Amino acid sequence: MRRTVFYISDSTGITAETIGNSILAQFDGVQFDTHRLPFTDTPAKAEAAALRIKTRYAQTGQRPIVVNTLADPSLCDVVAQSGALMIDVFAPFMGRLEAELGTRRSGAVNRSHGVVDYAKYEARINATNYALSHDDGMDLDYSDADLILVGVSRSGKTPTCLYMALHYGVSAANYPLTEEDLDKLELPAGLRPYRKRLYGLMIEPERLAQIREQRRSGSRYATLEQCRWELQQADRLLRKAGIPSLNTTHVSIEEIASKIFDRFGIERTMF
Amino acid sequence: MRRTVFYISDSTGITAETIGNSILAQFDGVQFDTHRLPFTDTPAKAEAAALRIKTRYAQTGQRPIVVNTLADPSLCDVVAQSGALMIDVFAPFMGRLEAELGTRRSGAVNRSHGVVDYAKYEARINATNYALSHDDGMDLDYSDADLILVGVSRSGKTPTCLYMALHYGVSAANYPLTEEDLDKLELPAGLRPYRKRLYGLMIEPERLAQIREQRRSGSRYATLEQCRWELQQADRLLRKAGIPSLNTTHVSIEEIASKIFDRFGIERTMF
Question: Quick check: B28 and A106 in contact, CB under 8 A?
Answer without folding.
Answer: yes
